[in-house]
User: Fold this.
Amino acid sequence: MSPWIIIVILGACAIAYAFIMPRKDKVQQPSHQLVQEMESTLEHYMTEIEQENDALIQRVAELKGEATAADQRLQSQLQELQQRLDQLEQQKVRTTETVLSAPVDSVLGYTSDGLQAQRLLENIRADANQQPESATSESQVKEENIEPQRESIKDRYKELFRLHDNGKSMDAIAKQTGIQLGEVQLILQLADREEN
Assistant:
């Protein structure tokens, strides 16, 4: 090969290399800008997240303080209610002791010499004594298979049957007596069965 062909080839390579070199710089320059933009965006995003985290931490601290204050208020109210309950229980015990230790006259409110209280106590004792006697008489009646007379349904609902005998409707009877309509019908049916 002749030397001028080598020089032409070298020149052509130099020119080609010169064209290729600026393109590499141009391609690298936009990618470098893209990386810088991404870094700045991420830094901005991280700053916003940190601010939001700080605000969230502050809000949690405020809520914790509010909850603590509310808990303290509830505890104080609970203590006050417990004290009030204790006072009421003590007052109840004192009142019970006073009533139990006081004479019968003062408990019943009598200011006389106690004759009325004695009469009341005697009546109560007499009633208590009569109850076993009546219980034994009822048991004797049962033993003898004698059934005591039952009160008839007409005796228990005199007003209802008076209105029915006067020709009032069941609705009118229910309104005047205050008994529900179904009950009025049932009572009349039971009275019919009782008579038959």
In short: Residues 104-113 have pLDDT under 50 and may be disordered. Residues 9 and 15 are 10 Å apart (CA to CA).
